[in-house]
Each structure stands twice: as structure tokens, then as C-alpha cells.
């Protein structure tokens, strides 16, 4: 049995997210499994590093699958490139040890959130960047970001409803860079809860607009109540950048 | 009578180009004139620095129009932003002297052509960059570009059919920059004939693929025969960058 690891780039705009939902076809997982099934004649089950929500993009999503097929790696890659829609590309493919697991073995995840901070939106990035027309104060955003660094209970910053699962995660760094009207927020952590990146970014935006203070964010973190935190920033600005094993 | 100058950004993907064609609505000029007509109650005629072909994009197209309307500049801008489709944005607006003419007074034009030179296409730039999968030799492309610098008869490098009009133009510079898989070609000249930028880029690509030599390009230039030059590079990689007055 072979274990094959894929590095996948996708434009999430027209998909309901990574995870296959019943018979529905408009998910990234569904599209790739279909092509692999047609190629190998086997039922393929892709294991990804994690789900991405509807509309979220990926530069380097990682997924693996097991197969008995003897088709050459290069042929799998070429076939996928030919038959996948143009908004999903398998960039590379490697045969890995049988116990490699994309989700369980992921050590760090890096997400990028893009904001366009100009009066009018930019036509070329309008599908890949969140347009905030009011001037954002970057220095305050950077200060607010430090609150999230380290090991914390992110219960106030997730849409996760389960009461059983741990909401403790560690964020290693949040880097905010501004170039002209483009702002990029890079978040590096050992894992992120459901919608956690987008709720943190929503909070940083409120801080940058000076609608919430540093002290208020600290208080929200301590109260562990999602209803207190800011709105979730929209999906189209979010990119899964890298998974580190 | 006021003369108003517009700086316009557009994603040309879904349009038949700048120029209005009879009753057809799917042109950039047609879209903007319609919104200005609704706002002012006047028949507005936009004069652009030049036409862009179907599928070609613009960062800073310049156009002007005359109006008797007394509506404030800021209100015109806000109204256009609200009612234009999201792939056309009027970035700024200025009142100019009555004799300002976007086309006649243009001194220099800068175009950018973008190429993605990776084995597989990039999903995020696929609509804004021409994908060339075979490795391009940038040094040869740079050498080939020098042939076009200066004042030349570009008859071999235009789709222009008229025999009466001059096909002599001057190109001041062609800068080719490669960063990872992205190649940008910036062309700066006093004017460009119909499809001239895309035929020159098509020729530079053939040179980069080593399918045509420097000597052959020089010969094609001398023979003044369009049928000898390379194919026209596709529209979706081309951006009108700047007009200098």
C-alpha cells in the first residue's frame, strides 16, 4: 500500500470549503477525490491537514491518501492537472512513509489574512483581500496582536460549539506588514480552532479602527465568551499558507 | 463647461474592451458613460488615452469628458463607485483645463505584460498572467528586447491594416524582471499600434524559448510584414499601467 502526500493550491471562491458534504460536489476534497477515483479505479479518501471553510483559499494545503495503484507519481500529477478545475492545482506529490498522517502530525500552521485598506476597493485583489475603506491604525493592531501570542484559552475567539474539546491553543507569532494599501497578517500557531483566525483578525480590525481597546480585548479573552468578541472577518481574505510537520 | 479627467482601474476579463460598440453594453466606455448619463442627465462622451482590446486590464487608464453639470467632484466619484460594476473603479477625478485631451496630449504610455513561468499555472494569477509552462531564458529575452528600443517602423508588429497611417513609433525602454515564477515586462513608449505590445511580447517569448534568434527578429523588423512575426500574446496578461502627459 502506498501513502501519497499532496501539496495543493486552491482558489476557494466558488467552493463550500475543503470538506466533502454527503453527495455534494462543490468542495475541494470532493473534486480531488473524484479525479483520483477516476484515475485509480479505487475509492480514495483524502486526509487533509485540516478543513478550510467555504470561500477560504490555500497556497499549500497538505493532504494524503492510501492506494494500491501502481500508477507513477508523475502520471498522477499530470492527470490531476489535466482533469481538475483550473482553480485547484496539485503543485507536488511525494510518496511518504505509511504512518504519515496530514492532520495528526501537523506541528505548526501558518495562515495569511489579506486586507486592502484604500478608500475604494482594488479590482484585481477584490476576490482575494478584504476591503476595509476606513484608515486602519497599524501600530495599534500590532499592539493588539501581542495579546494573542502564547498559550491561551481561545474560547472567546472560536465558533466551535463543543464543550468537550479543548479550546487551548498556542500562537507563536502574528506579523502585520503594510505596503501601500495592502495589509498582510501572518499567524503562526500549533493549531487554530474553527473560525479562530478570522475572529482574531476581526478583533484586530476593530482595534485598528479604534473601536475596541487593548484592555477590552484582554477582558474578552479572560471571559471565554464568543458573544463578546468581534465579528468574523470574511472568508475571501484568508489563505492557508503552510503546514509544518 | 467643465472638463473632467478620470483615472480608471479595470479588470478587463469580461469586457469587449474599452471602446463602445454601437448599442452593446459590455465595454468599459459603455459602462462608465451609462452611469455618468444617469447622474448628470446629459449625453456624456468619454475620450480615453487610447482603446484597450477585449480582455486587457488597466491600472490607470485616463479619460476625460465635458459637462455642464454642477455636481461636485466628490459626488461624481462616490456615485460612480456605487453604481459601476465591481470590476471598474474610478480611482480619482480632477477638473482640468478645457483644452485637456486624454488622447492627443498623451506623451508616453507604459504597459505591463505579466507571465507566469511555472510548470503548472498559479490559481490566483490565472486570470491576470499568461501561463508559459516551458522554462523561459530571461537573458535572451532581455537581449531580444533591445532590438525594439528606439524609433522604428513597427509594421511587422501590429495588427493595424490601414496603409495610410504611420507605423513608426518610439520605444524608450523595455524592462524585464523575474521574481520566482513571475515575469513582468514593462514597455514604455510614445505610443503603441494596435496589438503591438502583445506581438512584441509574443516575439520575446519565442526568443526566450529559443525558437527564434536575435538575427531573425531583426530581419522581421526590416521586412515590415506582420505575417512573419510571432503570435500575439493573450490579452489577459496585459495591463495599461500609466499615461504620462
TrEMBL record, chains A, B:
It holds the Pfam family PseudoU_synth_1. Gene3D superfamilies: Pseudouridine synthase I, catalytic domain, C-terminal subdomain (3.30.70.660), Pseudouridine synthase I, catalytic domain, N-terminal subdomain (3.30.70.580). The active site is at residue 53. Residues 8-104, 144-245 form the Pseudouridine synthase I TruA alpha/beta domain. It catalyses: uridine(38/39/40) in tRNA = pseudouridine(38/39/40) in tRNA. Its EC number is 5.4.99.12. Substrate binds at residue 111. GO terms for molecular function: RNA binding; tRNA pseudouridine(38-40) synthase activity. It is an enzyme of class 5 (isomerase). InterPro entries: PsdUridine_synth_cat_dom_sf (IPR020103), PsdUridine_synth_TruA (IPR001406), PsdUridine_synth_TruA_a/b_dom (IPR020097), PsdUridine_synth_TruA_C (IPR020095), TruA/RsuA/RluB/E/F_N (IPR020094). GO terms for biological process: tRNA pseudouridine synthesis. Keywords: Isomerase, tRNA processing. Formation of pseudouridine at positions 38, 39 and 40 in the anticodon stem and loop of transfer RNAs. NCBIfam families: hisT_truA. Belongs to the tRNA pseudouridine synthase TruA family. Homodimer. This is tRNA pseudouridine synthase A. The gene is truA_1.
